[in-house]
Design goal:
Blueprint (H helix, E strand, L loop, with lengths): L18 E12 L2 E7 L15 E4 L19 E4 L3 E3 L4 E7 L5 H8 L5 E4 L15 E7 L3 H10 L5 E8 L17 E4 L9 H8 L9 E7 H13 L8 E7 L15
The structure holds flavin-adenine dinucleotide.
Flavin-adenine dinucleotide (FAD) binds next to strand 4, strand 6, helix 1, helix 2 and strand 12.
């Protein structure tokens, strides 16, 4: 009888520790969206953020770094946000927070003041690789995905035609998606007390007129709505899967929704 020795489990990949930044500016973009700028010495990797990239923000900042001598402290709870704009010269990162109600990130942003600390991941991850030769793009997004939509619009070739559909709370939430590239979104205002988030996006996607051959789709919103829009595009409109990029940004009733829901299950 031969005895085989079990191989040791693969070493768990150590994620880099969060970096400390300081709030330098706070600006109300709309009644429900606050733009917060932070600065720090190690933000340079954000210059490489792809359109629609994400990062982690950790709360509360006060618990990090762990006391001297503590080597295995868990990282604080995190939430996923978009590194909307990075100014390399000033080492300044802009983040746009939707005040959706109670949640550690939304609560932090509502109370933030200049000088507060914010823990940010070591760099950006993910993002949308803009297809080569793209000539037509449909963007379907809710308010949490408007920062990412702005980044996507700015990364497109100027010859690309963009059709943007956004669901927001009300007319007061309409805004310029990019100060650099003009766009004319179709704004969908949630009815007061609307039953389901992103239901207007689902209806709009279901009644989309026929798009030119070769159109691409970038879709980011509440996760269940994203799936329904995705299914509809494939089943009803017969859209080629390769032309569709979908991402769930949050899920109704779920706290800390994962950052890697591309709806491909
Ligand atoms: C790739 C990616 C990029 C993102 N970028 C941004 C961004 O730039 N700006 C931004 O504001 N958000 C962004 N989000 C969404 C954000 O991560 C979630 O809204 C997150 O849940 C907020 O954390 P929280 O601590 O405030 O709430 P949580 O503690 O996670 O959730 C508390 C409760 O609030 C609900 N909730 C969460 N978000 C919403 C919402 N938008 N509307 C209504 N109810 C909600 C949850 O279902 C839960 O019941 C992004 C998400 C992803 C995956």
């Amino acid at each position: 009888m031969s005895i085989t020795q079990a191989s040791p489990p693969p070493a768990k990949k150590q994620r880099p520790p969060p970096q400390s930044t300081v709030v330098t500016a706070i600006e109300k973009v709309t009644p429900l969206v606050t733009r917060i700028s932070v600065t720090g010495p190690d933000l340079a990797p954000f210059a490489q953020a792809k359109p629609g990239a994400h990062m982690k923000l950790f709360f509360p900042a006060g618990v990090w770094p762990p006391p001297e001598g503590v080597t295995n402290a868990p990282r604080p709870p995190s939430r996923t946000y978009t590194p909307r704009r990075f100014d390399a010269e000033k080492s300044r990162l802009e983040i746009e927070f939707v005040m959706h109600g109670a949640g550690i990130a939304s609560d932090w942003a509502a109370k933030a003041v200049v000088g507060d600390r914010l823990l940010v991941s070591a760099g950006p991850g993910g993002g949308y690789p803009v297809p080569e030769g793209i000539s037509n793009l449909v963007i379907i997004a809710d308010d949490t995905a408007l920062p990412a939509a702005g980044m996507v619009i700015e990364a497109l070739p100027h010859t690309c035609h963009v059709n943007v559909i956004c669901e927001i709370e009300n007319a007061g939430e309409e805004r310029v998606l990019s100060p650099i590239v003009a766009s004319k979104p179709q704004w969908l205002h949630r009815a007061p007390g609307a039953a389901k988030p992103a239901s207007l996006l689902q209806a709009a996607a279901a009644s989309l007129s026929e798009q030119p051959v070769g159109t691409y789709y970038w879709i980011a919103c509440e996760a269940a709505a994203m799936r329904s829009i995705r299914d509809n595009l494939f089943a009803r409109a017969g859209v080629d899967r390769k032309r569709v990029h979908t991402r769930g940004y949050w899920k109704y009733g779920d706290t800390n929704y994962p950052d890697h829901d591309y709806g491909e299950d």
